[in-house]
Design a protein that fits this description.
768 residues; mTOR-Rac_regulators; G protein-coupled receptor 155; two-stranded antiparallel sheet; mainly alpha; globular; WH_DNA-bd_sf
């Protein structure tokens, strides 16, 4: 029985992340704690809390994308240059370890060259140079100031405060050396795509140099370094308050803008970007930190203090984990190249970096590693994550059942994946209690449930998009059953990497080769024959209205959510790569270190935290959760306003919008987008789609972006100028049918008379 117990403990370690139990006598020495982790979680909470506030403000259209550009210009052209100037002047070069800076420089250049060369070899000729330039910038330019500096300050301010200034010394490596090379590739691609190809190479070099010099960040770095020597390491008293005011405004504003810039970026996520995103995120969050640490280990080996050497290598690893800066997305938009990959990758890398940074910092503070406490800590982490993930999965599965999406493909496969993830959490929670009891049969059954369901999640990740081949998943499921049966006994070490490798290969091959069937194109109902005599004037009855039925069909077609399934596959494939790397690491290296231990914790978080990913992608269903919640909130708010002001008229802003539209835009809008469509057996109605109105407002210059167009249409709906054909929903930028009301002209005249007699200032603003 003792041998069976040892066997169970060994394979428990394998399941929860340690793919083979560490020897009891294996103890790894390390340096004393060189960083303070107590302030790390509050710092992460502060940073990502402000990012979340910015995202919510943009998602709720409180701040439109056009308005967000103003904040972005302030951050990049005023606050950040002032911050760089201040720190360049106050920089203390006496405490700088130059070998560390050379190590980071070599690491960035190495990753830049690797990504650039691979992209030039693999990418097609139509976009080869633009991808090489922007992908290389993506993999090397970190969010050093907005997100990196608060993290470093929380970790090293009390122990190694001089590490804070390295942020300002390392950042110019990308801005002044590597980015210009990437810009040159983009200019070459722009030149190749243009019809006029008579420009010489000298012009391309000139354009790149001019673009670098026009960058206010680069300019202020140079000015700050010159002022450092001219001003004697001090900012003049006359300028100090002014510079401090601008510099101190950077932190919160930059993080808030980062959240704003994330809104709508995942909509650009397509299946063609999957492989590029996997490779780029792997290069940024895995390859970069490892190379940074290795370079410090090699070049700083002659350091006088071993403790300082270890802390520098750990700091280099943490620096490499910093996510991609949002300015890379600005570069992509300026060149109008590779927007889908860059913007989606920026969002994913930002949120993936948070748990990696926290776990890395926590493990690097451990001065020694005893296997038994570590296995216990690993099991506790898995147990705690499983509880929270279980709640998220219950919600997600309930949403899938209530929305009835599980009956359709590919949601049917996603539902199987969610059930497997649910069983993984159940198995981990049960094991936490069963392992403490002397119940061998219970341990075997619980272990089988945990082991089999965990492997099922690996397999269903690969099966999720195989339905495009019209293949039956039986053969793949049988692989899982065979591995569950034999992998734990006869092939405990070889079975794990084999299953991981097969699943990863399936995912990558599907992402590369499969052409996933696109959602049905969004079109309106066909125009009716002129012979139909009646025109519908009353609200349509939903069960019988042909337009409402068409909306339901379009909604079902759009509800395949191909982009969401692709994103789910991408994130789970990254965790599969981590599990495969862990297996291979142990097979070929029997001396694990702190990085291997970190990889095990990451695997445990990835395996038992899959519910978070599923909930984030599918838990907040638009039609089942978000829209009803917004309608309920709006009704409660409007009801409160009616109680407070029972006879209040429409707000003046809405009256102005309705009057302006009816008097100056409605006639042309009706000619451009309104079409006669069949809504009953013998009735027609002039309708338009909500998305068509938003596009028309953009073309007419009434709105500057889709967010403003949505606000404009909402005000028209609230003012009674337009309404849904069945009066079921408010105005949405979607494939929903709306029509202009017959009483809109009368409403406009009444509003005009009201403005003329009561508010001449409002009338003046209307004409202006």
């Amino acid at each position: 029985s003792s041998s069976y117990a040892n066997w169970g403990e060994q394979h428990l370690a394998q399941v929860i992340g340690l793919h083979c139990a560490l020897p009891v006598a294996c103890v790894f020495s390390g340096s004393p704690t060189a960083m303070s982790i107590d302030k790390l979680f509050p710092a992460l909470l502060e940073c990502f809390g402000i990012i979340l506030c910015g995202y919510v403000a943009g998602r709720a259209n409180i701040i439109t994308s056009t308005q967000a550009k103003g904040l972005g210009n302030f951050v990049s052209k005023f606050a950040l240059p002032a911050l760089l100037f201040k720190n360049m002047v106050l920089l203390d070069f006496g405490n700088v370890v130059w070998s560390f800076l050379w190590s980071i420089l070599i690491a960035k250049v190495s990753v830049f060259i690797i990504v650039c060369v691979l992209t030039l070899v693999v990418a097609g000729p139509e976009s080869r140079f633009s991808k090489a330039g922007l992908y290389s910038i993506f993999a090397t330019q970190s969010n050093d100031f907005a997100l990196g500096y608060p993290i470093v300050e929380a970790l090293y301010k009390n122990t190694y405060p001089e590490y804070l200034q390295y942020i300002y010394l390392v950042a110019p490596v990308s801005l002044m050396i590597l980015n210009p090379i990437g810009f040159a590739f983009c200019e070459i691609q722009k030149w190749r795509n243009s019809q006029d190809q008579q420009h010489n190479k000298l012009r391309i070099v000139g354009v790149v140099i001019l673009q670098v010099l026009k960058n206010p960040i680069v300019f202020m770095v140079v000015v700050g370094l010159v002022s450092h020597f001219l001003l004697g390491h001090k900012i003049p008293v006359v300028m100090q308050e002014f510079v401090d005011g601008l510099a101190n405004s950077f932190g919160g504003a930059a993080l808030f803008y980062l959240g704003l810039s994330m809104v709508g970026q995942l909509r650009k996520f397509t299946k063609s970007t999957v492989v590029a995103l996997i490779l780029l995120i792997t290069a940024k969050l895995l390859v970069m930190p490892l190379i940074c640490r290795d370079m410090v280990e090699l070049l700083d080996s002659n350091s006088s203090s071993p403790q300082n050497h270890t802390s520098l290598s750990n700091y280099a690893f943490l620096y490499g984990v910093f996510p991609t800066a949002p300015s890379v997305a600005i570069y992509a938009s300026q060149y109008n190249m590779e927007l889908e990959v860059i913007t989606s990758g920026m969002v994913i890398s930002t949120f993936l970096s948070a748990p990696i940074m926290y776990v890395s910092a926590w493990l690097l503070t451990i001065p020694w590693m005893d296997p038994k406490p570590l296995v216990t800590a690993l099991q506790n982490v898995s147990f705690n994550i499983s509880i929270v993930s279980l709640v998220a999965l219950v919600w997600t599965i309930a949403v899938m059942l209530l929305s009835k999406k599980f009956k359709r493909l590919p949601h049917m496969f996603a539902m199987n994946l969610f059930l497997a993830q649910f069983l993984v959490c159940i198995g981990m929670i049960l094991w936490n209690f069963i392992v403490k009891q002397d119940n061998f049969i219970g341990q075997v059954l619980t272990f089988t449930l945990l082991y089999g369901s965990l492997y099922s999640t690996y397999v269903w990740t690969g099966v999720l998009h195989v339905h495009s081949f019209r293949c039956q998943p039986t053969c793949v499921t049988s692989i899982c059953e065979c591995d569950v049966t034999f992998g734990g006994t006869a092939l405990p070490w070889a079975g794990v990497p084999c299953v991981h490798g097969v699943c990863v290969c399936v995912c990558v091959c599907v992402c590369v080769c499969v052409s996933v069937r696109q959602a049905l194109p969004v079109t309106g109902v066909s125009t009716v024959c002129v012979s139909l005599p009646g025109e519908c004037t009353a609200p349509c009855e939903s069960p019988h209205c042909l337009l409402v039925q068409e909306e339901e069909r379009l909604q079902q077609a759009a509800d395949r959510q191909v982009a969401r399934h692709t994103l789910l596959c991408l994130l789970l494939t990254v965790s599969l790569l981590a599990n495969l790397s862990s297996c291979l690491w142990w097979l070929f290296n029997r001396d694990p270190g702190s990085l291997y231990l970190e990889l095990q914790f990451f695997c445990a978080i990835a395996n038992y935290g899959q519910g978070f990913i599923s909930f984030g992608i599918f838990g907040l269903d638009k039609h089942l959760i978000i829209i009803p919640f917004k309608k309920r909130l709006a009704s409660l708010w409007q009801g409160r306003e009616r109680v407070e002001e029972p006879q209040a008229a429409l707000p003046e802003e809405i009256r102005l919008t309705c009057t302006q539209f009816i008097r100056y835009h409605k006639d042309q809008c009706v000619q451009d987008i309104v079409q006669k469509r069949r809504c009953g057996e013998r009735t027609v109605v002039g309708t338009f789609l909500g998305s068509e109105l938003v596009e028309w407002l953009l073309r007419a210059g009434v709105a500057r972006d889709r967010g403003e167009g949505l606000l404009y249409g909402t005000q028209l709906e609230q003012g009674g100028v337009l309404q849904h054909v069945a009066r079921e929903v408010g105005f949405q930028d979607d494939s929903l049918h709306y029509r202009f009301t017959e009483g809109a002209r009368t409403c406009s005249l009444r509003c005009y008379e009201f403005l003329f007699f009561s508010s001449p200032r409002s009338l003046f603003s209307l004409y202006s």
